[in-house]
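Collaborator request, handled under Task 6.
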Amino acid sequence: MLILYYWPGTSSVVPHIVLEEIGAPYERQLVNLAQGEHKSVAYLKINPRGKVPALAIDGNVLAENVAILTYLAKQFPQARLLPHGILEEARCISTMAWFASAAHPTFAHIIRPERFATDIAAHANLKDTARSAFWDICEEINRSLDGKKWMMGGTYTVCDPYAFFFYDLGSRIKLPMHELPVYAAFNKRMLERPAVCKVRGLEENILKGKDSWHGQYYAQPRSV
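Structure tokens returned to the collaborator:
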């Protein structure tokens, strides 16, 4: 049995979408970040890093999106969520690694500067610098999508929900994502996928009215 430990609005939305794309049975287990459940003794036994997502596989736990997404794509090859060929597969994994190591940490500097600087006076500059760097990343994604339907070309892969997540993050902080026409068109295609619609609806319903950054975000209209 697969169990996804997740919290809406975080990067756990990526494997959440992939699990729906695959169609295999799985369970969802909320980890309420707003209430600090990720730091609880019970959850730290599941993921000692205290983060989501985590994926339990018959009692064994995988953490980190690159590992989780690669596992799911390889375990369920009928879903065809990795490109054919060892080089193209490696490029897909490389893209996910860039998302995890560069795009996501950059965004974290914008919304959680206190994690990276104890000097409050430095927070404004840290956020502004990270915001500019994150926009550069979004522009790079826009360029990489030029002439392609999906991140890896004509075939939908595990990279696509990940790229969709970062478009969503840009919208949250009111970056002019509409100025990235190729990326915006990709986002629209993602929103037309049944798995994305299902997960988005589920997560928004959970978070509406929550007293958290994510809850406040979902309660407000977003640009596309």
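The cover message to the collaborator said: "The chain has a mean pLDDT of 93. Residues 86-111 form the longest helix (26 residues). Please let us know whether this matches your experimental observations."
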